[in-house]
Amino acid sequence: MPRLEARWFIEAYEKNKDKNPIILELVILDYNIVQSIHQEDLRYVSTWWKELGIGKRFSFTIDRVMENFLWGVGMIIAPRDGKSRRILTKVNVLITFFFFA
């Protein structure tokens, strides 16, 4: 999960005396782009889960959308593979729902 850990390295590099400001700016830009892609993927999956309505129909369900999405981000790390991340998250959400139901 190097993309998620990048924020810690950015903060450490910012404190470095010998930092290259151009590299720092590019790294921050890349981090923000990837973060916005992940936020859009999570928004899509959260909307899908709410529209599915399983959480409202069954009082015993546990909403684990974020947990399953983070698992998908750890497995499919390339930002361009958002569709795969979304599908994997949907599958994982349904599996955990039926497993814990």
UniProtKB/TrEMBL annotation:
Residues 50-97 form the Terpene synthase metal-binding domain. Gene3D superfamilies: Farnesyl Diphosphate Synthase (1.10.600.10), Terpene synthase, N-terminal domain (1.50.10.130). GO terms for molecular function: magnesium ion binding; terpene synthase activity. The keyword Cell inner membrane does not apply. Keywords: Magnesium, Metal-binding. InterPro entries: Isoprenoid_synthase_dom_sf, Terpene_synth_N_sf, Terpene_synthase-like, Terpene_synthase_metal-bd. One of its GO terms (biological process) is terpenoid biosynthetic process. It holds the Pfam family Terpene_synth_C. This is Terpene synthase metal-binding domain-containing protein. It comes from Gossypium laxum.
